[in-house]
Amino acid sequence: MKLSEMNIQELSALYSVAIDICREYSKMTDGYILATGDNVLDASNRIPSDVQNTINERQQYFAIKDRITNELKKKLLTEIEYE
């Protein structure tokens, strides 16, 4: 189902899942940053491939969360009537 076809409750549930996944990825990358001191997460710093994959996956999920957020904002604006 497309995001635009979901109601606010469905989007909200999906948003909660996305937030949880993003939080887990943030913990993983934060752990790497603390362990190595590489606070830029720059691939040119010779980040191990498994860490780089985690960073790439993290970015994908943050992009998904942003898409859900944008759709929620649109739904709220269209469904809430102002007097």
Largest sheet: none
Mean pLDDT: 86
Rounded to the nearest angstrom, the distance between the terminal CA atoms is 33 Å
- State the shape: elongated
| Percentage of residues assigned to helices | over 70%
The domain tally reads 1
CA radius of gyration: 17 Å
Number of beta strands: 0
Number of helices: 2
String of helices and strands: HH
What structural class results from the helix and strand content? mainly alpha
Overview of the molecule:
- The chain is mostly helical and 83 residues long.
- The protein has one domain.
- Helix content is 72%, strand content 0%.
- Helix 1 packs antiparallel against helix 2.
SSE topology sketch:
Layout: H1 8-36, H2 49-79
Q: Which key phrases capture this entry?
A:
2 helices; 83 residues; single chain; mainly alpha
Quick structural summary:
The chain is mainly α and 83 residues long. It has helices at residues 8-36, 49-79. The longest helix is centred in the last third of the chain and has 31 residues, at 49-79.
